Amino acid sequence: MNLNRTTIIRLRQRLHETDTVSDRPRCGRPRCTTQRQDRNLVRNHMKNRFLSASASSRQTRGRNNQLISENTVRRRLSTSGLRARRPYIGPILTQRHGHQRTLWAQEHAAWDRI
Asked: Which parts of the chain span the membrane according to its record (predicted)?
């Protein structure tokens, strides 16, 4: 194995102390939603694509019956691969339209304003 000697010593020591080599809990603020609530958020947004994060945050209560923020909803959706997108605003052009516009521009390229 290509491991450092110190790594092996620390893993053996952790195994002896805790009977496992898995990571210990780390410090930090606890999450305000459970994994089940996160899955429900994603499921609701998959069912209703037009549901906003603010509406979803008003409907969802986190742990200890507290309200969750819109940014929390956005983060949970983002980690699952869902992102907000704005619809394309403009003319929907086919290849034929694009070709005709290019021809028109080439014909009128030499025109000057009077």
From this structure: none
**CB atoms < 10 A from the CB of 20, how many?**
9
Q: What share of the chain is helix, strand, coil (3-state, %, to 5)?
A: 55, 0, 45
pTM of the prediction?
Answer: 0.55
Burial of 51 by CB count in 10 Å (0-12 exposed, 13-18 middle, 19+ buried)?
Answer: middle
Query: What sign results for the dihedral spanned by CA atoms 23, 29, 35, 38?
Result: negative
**Kind and range of the H or E element at 104?**
helix 95-107
Residues in the chain: 114
Instruction: Provide the percentage of residues in the chain whose pLDDT is more than 70.
Output: 98
**Paired tokens of 58:** 């008003």
105 torsion bin: left (phi>0), alpha (psi -120 to 50), beta (else): alpha
